[in-house]
Design brief:
30 helices; two-stranded antiparallel sheet; flat; translation initiation factor activity; mainly alpha; PCI_dom
Length: 953
């Protein structure tokens, strides 16, 4: 590594090495100086050194050296003089572009030179030599040898500069300029692959800009200048993508622009948004997304009408017609009918992306598949007044296809309108983003829509139709196309029809297809089974009384116990399932590890195989080079044999012969032979010129004499023909006079015959007029009678309707009176039942008072003196427990066990007192609940209890 005291010394040393032809050494010397840490301060000499360094890198196509040098120079200039770095980079790009253009022009000139065939040799030496190794054309070989290396280096230059300037706020203008030049390079030379890579590079730069926000000198996208540069770059990318017809990359560019707008939360200028929506219309049309294409046209129309003040009425009419035709081109049925759940979810996500690109804000958590629809689009067009701006042909087409009902001649009425619409086109003078509007692109979609409308309207009118009739109804489509459209419409559940080719008929009906009947058969079967089960096992109503729910407590406890046991078993199963999943996960991880190991082994095998292939290729290449060297020697011997007649021998060593040397030798020989041939041709042309002049001087008087002779012959011939024509005319006139004299005696008979014919025709005419008048009178009389009959029929129907209405009103009045009568009878019956229930309750109260008095008397008789302290007999305890009045209600235990005075003994109907105690086994029943009791409580009938329950309700 050479060291220099001053940078000027390195520059002088590099120039000396260049002068002696050692460019590689000069480049290495300058590279060592630039990458040295001794020269970190910027000075003007370093800029001159970088200019020379860049020149050497371009001459030698050393992209890696150029990148290293520019990175080091950026470190030096970053804080001191950024403009110097800009000048160096511009010079670098200029040199690379200039050398690429020179190589391209040189290849073009070489192609033009080689296009001239040799007049003596059957085959050129270079063609003979290159035919052994390849079958390429001359242009392909020249491009590969001259143009392609320089284009690769130019592409590498753009990549290097973009990588050096990325995400730097001080160099963002130069970054944008480089990106634009790279885009133009891809556009000029149709480099689609490089364009995709360039877009990916710029996209990654923006991603890294948002990812590493703590980077020094990071561009601020909130700044208007920076944002404008980034937005202009993306819009240029979108333009080039559409011009190269890279529609997928164009859509990604649109997403980049939308992401940038969402990132900075700012909307670009209307002129840029017009370009944005114009490109979206092209992208959606190519992608056959007609719905979003129409919405993009709507947005474009709104922007143009709002912000473009120079828009003429004709331009506005063309754009509005495009909007309406794009809306009509959308299929009138739903494309999601019959798709799976996964497809619906994917469609939902896709719709959310598309609507966000068209600036329609949606909620991603909702189901937005039906937000942007054809009907909503047409209603919005009507609401915004676009219908008033469209052309009359487009407006008539819209009313025919959307609002009219002509099943038989709809297509015949639509066809002339489509012909007129296909001729409507024009250039927009004041809308640069949409230079031209072509309405003919919508004609196929409109023909399909017309076909669908004809099928839809025919299915509403007819049940069966011949295929020939249907084909005649749609003149612009063949029957195969109509059938294809019908199949798609039936698939989307738009119409229901069948085509029977054996009978040659089309069947329209409301019947479902077999697939539709089989689609939901399980759900229908389940619903029917549920209805049958509900009829067999009626649902049990919930009880509201505590007494009714007590017997089921044990069953409820049992069910709850079983439910808890089932829950415990479910928890155990879940634990087992979790353990099984853990084992499966471990097993999967082991399988993944083995798979990864297998992949590594396969990669190693591939590497060994590729190494073996590379060695084989090297061996084959060596053999090819040896064979080429031998063939070159043979060609050299042939060149020596051809040059022996000149006495000259090419001075080339046989061991150092190369393909390039032979090409140069062949070109030299060809140029020499061509120059000799040109001299011969010049001499031959001069000789032929003298001979031609001499021949023309000799033949001039002979030509004049022949011309005079021919003129005299033609004059004589003309006079002879004229005399013959006069003689023929005289003869024809004489014959015509004789014929006239012969036919003049028949004029009288001709007049008589003519008058007879005229009289017959007049009589026939009068007869026909009379018959026609009689027929018209008969028709008028029949129509008058028909009107009279219809008038009488209408009068009868009206009177009959009035009679039926009167009968219906009388029936309603009778039913209303009957209902009122039933209500009065029901009220009287309830009043009687209430009176009976009141009497029954009075009797029960009296019986209870008597029972209470009887038990008190019985208790007083049975009680012993307190001083004896004798326990009451066991049979008296149930009486105490049942001392409470038994009214049929539930009595708590603490009430039943409370001691009270014993009621008087019950007297039967013969006046005797019943001193028998109640049975001890029935503790829950009072005396009034015993089945064998004959007291007043037991005499309560079920009718009275039912009446009392009704009154309580």
């Amino acid at each position: 590594m050479a060291t220099f005291q001053k940078p000027e010394n390195a520059l002088k040393r590099a120039e000396e090495l260049i002068n002696v032809g050692q460019k590689q050494a000069a480049l290495q010397a300058l590279h060592d100086l630039i990458t040295s840490k001794r020269y970190r301060a910027w000075q003007k000499t370093l800029e001159r050194i970088m200019f020379k360094y860049v020149e050497l890198c371009v001459d030698m196509r050393k992209g890696r050296f150029a990148k290293d040098g520019l990175i080091q120079y950026r470190i030096v200039c970053q804080l001191v003089n950024v403009s110097s770095l800009e000048e160096v980079i511009k010079y670098f790009i200029h040199l690379s572009t200039e050398r690429a253009e020179q190589a391209r022009s040189k290849a073009q000139a070489l192609e033009d030179a080689l296009d001239v065939d040799d007049l003596e040799a059957d085959k050129r030496p270079e063609d003979l030599m290159l035919s052994y190794v390849s079958g390429e054309k001359e242009k392909d070989r020249s491009d590969r040898e001259l143009v392609t290396p320089w284009f690769k280096f130019l592409w590498e230059t753009y990549r290097t500069v973009l990588e050096i300037l990325r995400n730097n706020s001080k160099l963002e203008a130069l970054y944008a300029m480089t990106a634009h030049r790279a885009f133009q390079f891809c556009k000029q030379y149709k480099r689609t692959t490089e364009f995709r890579r360039l877009c990916e590079i710029i996209r990654n730069h923006l991603i890294n800009l948002n990812k590493y926000k703590d980077q020094r000198d990071r561009p601020d996208l909130s700044s208007p200048e920076s944002l404008q540069l980034y937005v202009d770059t993306r819009f240029e990318q979108l333009k080039i993508a559409t011009e190269l017809e890279l529609w997928q990359e164009a859509f990604r560019s649109v997403e980049d622009i939308h992401g940038l707008m969402c990132m900075v939360k700012k909307t670009p200028k209307p002129s840029l948004m017009v370009i944005y929506y114009a490109k979206l219309t092209e992208i959606f049309w190519v992608a056959e997304s007609h719905l979003y294409h129409a919405f993009a046209w709507l947005k474009l129309f709104t922007l143009q009408k709002t912000y473009n003040k120079n828009l003429t009425q004709k331009d506005l009419q063309l754009i509005a017609s495009s909007v309406l035709l794009a809306a009509l081109a959308v299929a009138p049925y739903d494309h999601k009918h019959g798709v799976s759940h996964m497809e619906l979810e994917n469609e939902k996500e896709r719709n959310f992306r598309m609507t966000s690109l068209i600036s329609f804000s949606l909620d991603p958590k909702r189901d937005n598949r039906e937000v942007l629809t054809r009907s909503s689009l047409l209603s919005e067009l009507t609401a915004k007044g676009i219908m008033s701006c469209v052309a009359q042909e487009v407006k008539d087409l819209y009313h025919l296809l959307e609002h009219e009902f002509f099943p038989l001649d709809l297509a015949s009425k639509v066809q002339p309108l489509l012909t007129k619409i296909s001729k409507l086109s024009g250039k927009l003078a004041s809308a640069s983003s949409v230079p031209e509007v072509q309405l003919s692109q919508y004609v196929p979609a409109l023909e399909k829509l017309a076909t669908l409308r004809v099928l839809q309207q025919a299915s509403q009118v007819y049940q069966t139709m011949k295929i020939e009739v249907l084909s005649g109804m749609i003149p612009f489509c063949t029957i195969s196309v109509v059938e294809k459209v019908a199949v798609e419409a039936v698939k989307r559940n738009f119409i229901t029809m069948k085509v029977d080719h054996m009978k040659g008929a089309v069947l329209f009906s409301d019947m479902d297809l077999e697939s539709d009947r089989l689609r939901d058969h399980l759900a229908t079967f389940s619903e029917n089974l549920n209805s049958v089960r509900s009829m067999i096992f009626a649902p049990v109503k919930k009880t509201s009384k505590l007494g009714d729910s007590l017997p089921g407590l044990a069953e409820i406890v049992d069910k709850e116990h079983k439910r808890l046991l089932a829950r415990k078993s479910i928890i155990e199963k879940r634990k087992e399932e979790q353990e099984r999943q853990m084992l499966e996960m471990e097993r999967e991880e082991e399988s993944k590890r083995l798979k990864q190991q297998k992949i590594v082994e396969e990669a190693e095998q591939k590497r060994l195989a590729s190494e073996y292939t590379r060695r084989e290729e090297q061996r084959i290449r060596r053999e090819i080079e040896e064979r080429e060297r031998e063939e070159a020697k043979a060609l050299l011997l042939e060149a020596e044999k051809r040059s022996k007649k000149k006495g000259k021998k090419p001075v080339i060593e046989g061991d150092k012969v190369t393909k390039q040397t032979l090409i140069e030798l062949a070109l030299t020989e060809q140029l020499r032979e061509r120059q000799e041939m040109e001299k011969k041709l010049q001499k031959l042309a001069k000789t032929m010129d003298y001979m031609e002049r001499a021949k023309r001087e000799e033949e001039a008087p002979l030509i004049e004499a022949a011309y005079q002779k021919r003129l005299e012959e033609e004059r004589n011939l003309h006079e002879r023909d004229q005399l013959q024509e006069i003689e023929l005319s005289r003869q024809h006139h004489t014959g015509d006079l004789q014929e006239k004299n012969r036919l003049s005696r028949m004029i009288t008979y001709k007049d008589i015959f003519q008058e007879k014919i005229l009289k017959q025709r007049e009589a026939e005419h009068n007869r026909l007029v009379t018959e026609r008048e009689e027929r018209l009178r008969g028709i008028l009389e029949a129509r008058r009678q028909e009107r009279e009959r219809l008038r009488k029929l209408l009068y009868y129907l009206r009177t009959e309707e009035e009679r039926l209405t009167q009968l219906h009103e009388e029936e309603e009045a009778r039913k209303l009176e009957e209902a009122e009568r039933k209500k009065r009878e029901e009220a009287e019956r309830r009043a009687k039942l209430d009176e009976i229930a009141e009497k029954q309750r009075q009797r029960e109260r009296e019986a209870e008072e008597k029972e209470k008095a009887r038990r008190e008397a019985l208790l007083r008789r049975s009680v012993e003196p307190a001083a004896r302290h004798i326990e009451p007999p066991p049979a008296a305890r149930p009486v105490e427990a049942s001392a409470a009045p038994t009214t049929g209600r539930y009595v708590p235990r603490f009430r039943r066990e409370t001691p009270s005075a014993a009621p008087p003994p019950e007297t039967d109907r013969w006046g005797r007192q019943d001193e028998r105690p109640p049975p001890a086994s029935d503790k829950w029943r009072g005396e009034d609940r015993r089945p064998g009791s004959f007291g007043p409580r037991s005499s309560t009938s079920w009718t009275s209890s039912r009446a009392s329950r009704g009154s309580e309700r």
